[in-house]
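SEQUENCE WITH STRUCTURE:
===
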Amino acid sequence: FDRAEEDFIIEPITGGASTREYFRVIIPRLPTHASGVLMLQEKKFNLAHSDFYQVSEILRKLNLPSPLIYQEFSRDGAFYLQDLGGVHLHDLVSEVMDDEEFVIGLYEQAIDHLIVLQTRANNYSKGVAAFERAFDEKKLMWEMDFMMKHFAASFASWKPEKNEKIVLKKFYQELVAQISALP
């Protein structure tokens, strides 16, 4: 950003279960108060090998929603992205709960996107690091721990008691063993 700081309004975007940080950047001097999203990662990246970039490209090829990447700042571990708004599916459904047909349509659309992703993403997987990762027991347990730390604790503000942690760990170990045994 080459402009003076007062030319922008920067608002943190909270509520994600990620180690990335997001900020909405509003440019008030433009007639529509245009905005974008600054995404900060923990480390520098090579654009061509960046998980975010590679997955974004696949989503675009599949005609699935994905914010445009306006600018990358690989040395700083950052992307400047299209702002798609701040409404989550859960929030939208909560607002229109009385319109059952509309709610069902929203969930059907989400499921349709998942089906496209599951059935066609492999067509674009060659050389994409995310497709080369093995979801073995170690990786799956890492995902469970990550979910507990960044979703349950941070996002949902749920911190299980010691006995609940023991039960959850046993459950996760059994679940992970079953999942990793699948082809």
